[in-house]
Design a protein that fits this description.
Blueprint lengths: L7 H6 L4 E2 L3 H19 L5 H11 L7 E3 L3 E3 L5 E3 L3 E3 L3 E4 L4 E3 L4 E2 L4 E3 L1 E2 L4 H4 L3 E4 L2 E3 L4 E2 L4 E2 L4 E2 L4 E2 L4 E2 L7 E4 L4 E5 L2 H11 L4
Parallel strand pairs: 2-5, 3-6, 4-7, 5-8, 6-9, 7-12, 8-13, 9-14, 12-15, 13-16, 14-17, 16-18
Antiparallel strand pairs: 1-11, 10-11, 18-19
Helix pairs in contact: 2-3
Length: about 200
């Protein structure tokens, strides 16, 4: 791919180095910020209006979802969420690349999902180059409070990420993972389900 003939937006979406100060990208970020500002300043009773704003802002939504304000994102159109999605206060998604989130995902307060990165070498960073890598989160995932998810990460299905974790690498299915950097602590099994059935009498 010849990046010399691509627009800065095309470079961004292709995972190439790009200039975020590009006029087209700046205009799109401003549009998203206007919608996010409206979302965050609606009175709590205006649930439908907030939901309608996110339907317009996000690239893909399903029937059941709820995002507590305040919320922040860069573009919005790179965010895809599945059914039965819930995000608590202060979710930040820097969606310079696609962020794909599956069904039945619960996100605790103060979670940050970052697709954007900057060159380590100051010579390139000082020229305001950026890059972005997609983030994927599977089905039935619970992300604890104050978690940071870094660019390019894939989190599997049936996963719990412990609070305060910094996720810098892929996390497989069916595990509890935590720490800085985040690592697999143990497998999740039917014994975990049986524990809650016993103590909380679920299903009765």
């Amino acid at each position: 791919m010849d990046t010399n003939i691509l627009t800065e937006k095309q470079k961004m979406l292709a995972g190439k180095a790009y200039l975020a100060g590009d006029a087209v990208l700046a205009k799109e970020r401003l549009k998203a910020r206007e919608m996010v500002y409206e979302f965050n300043h609606l009175a709590p009773k205006f649930i439908k209006q907030r939901k309608d704003l996110l339907k317009r802002l996000f690239g893909k939504t399903e029937k059941m979802f709820y995002v507590e304000p305040p919320f922040r994102c860069d573009y919005g159109y790179n965010i895809e969420i599945g059914d039965n999605f819930y995000a608590n206060f202060n979710l930040v998604i820097l969606d310079c690349a696609k962020v794909s989130i599956g069904n039945n995902v619960f996100i605790a307060p103060n979670v940050a999902i970052y697709t954007a990165g900057h060159p380590i070498h100051a010579h390139l960073r000082d020229q305001e180059y950026e890059w972005a890598q997609e983030i994927t989160i599977g089905n039935s995932v619970w992300i604890g409070g104050n978690v940071v998810i870094n660019p390019g990460v894939k989190i599997g299905s049936n996963v719990v990420i412990g609070s305060g974790s910094i996720v810098t690498r892929d996390i497989p299915d069916n595990v509890f993972a935590a720490g800085n950097p985040c690592r697999v602590i143990r497998q999740l099994t039917d014994a975990d389900k049986d524990y809650y059935y016993k103590d909380f009498k679920l299903g009765e």
